[in-house]
Amino acid sequence: MxxxxxxxxxxxxxxxxxxxxxPKRPSMELRRRRRRQLGxxxxxxxxxxxxxxxxCALMLQGSLGLGLATLFYxxxxxxxxxRARRGNINALDLNLAEQMQVTVATLRAKRNYETASxxxxxxALSYFLVLTMxxxxxxxxxxxxxxxxxxxxxxxxxxxxxxxxxxxxxFTRRAELLSEDGAG
Amino acid sequence: MRTARDTRxxxxxxxxxxxxxxxxxxxxxxHNPAVAEELYQEVCLALWRAGEKIQLAENPGAxxxxxxxxxxxxxxxxxxxxxxxxxxxxxxxxxxxxxxEDTLGRYQxxxxxxxxxxxxxxxxxxxxxxxxxxxxxQEIAYVMGIxxxxxxxxxxxxxxxxxxxxxxxxxxxxxxxxxxxx
Lengths: 184, 182
Fold this sequence. Notes:
By secondary structure, chain A is an all-alpha fold. Helices cover 79% and strands 0% of the residues of chain A. Classes of the chains: A mainly alpha, B mainly alpha.
């Protein structure tokens, strides 16, 4: 089979695949997918509202700094989610190059968010250790659970950070490859 | 006011006309049939969101191809974290359905063509897939957001490589997305 000599034959072979060797085209199933997307959106909204409620509770209890930090964190995550969602909708009006730019920017923001989250957990662990040392007492069982939880959170967040950085890096490389100036 | 039923009927007619094209674009970028089906549904959802924009587009076919390509590329982005190496079941399909020797030969050629297209680097795979769908370089440039000259250059190299792959009649190793040799 020679592509140069049989361009039309190759194209016909390609276009007849659905009736031939290719798997059968599935029927459209949007209802379940839309329901799942709406469910995910509502879960995200509830988690966000829960974070805001926690921030307000902290501020009312007198932890103004911690409450404000929690509030800003929730707002940042919410804005990131809105940006990703708006990007998905606006992507309908974008060509591939434009969509890649938007996606690279979104992945960069996610990378920064994961990195910042990891640093926040490290700061929380440091704060907890300093408080424990200042008390001068040995760590009781509740404190041990908190310490284990903080270490686990740092481990999980570190993995998420590495994954986010890897995705951003790989996608940036692919975006450059597909761009006008990319390897032809 | 456009009802949900109108949108659904409109999307059904769009898929009647262009659904096979969308499916082929999906298959060009995804080996695993189950994941390909998920990707196809994602494209359908994007087409549903596009709604009237498809009818109002200057070139509805190219507009739909652009949406499908964007979704496929986003899928490739996710695939980076979850690489798949599942073998295509085309061989089984061909052996089940091939009653005539010429049908089997055609099935094998289609399988070889699909395998060869999938092996191309991404920057060649996209334009060659769209060319096989009948789009001109200007239309491919509209989809990809690059110049028609760049499309033509990549098509020349893609055709050469695809021809070599098809001539070899085998694709033992998947080519990674890499810069072609200068």
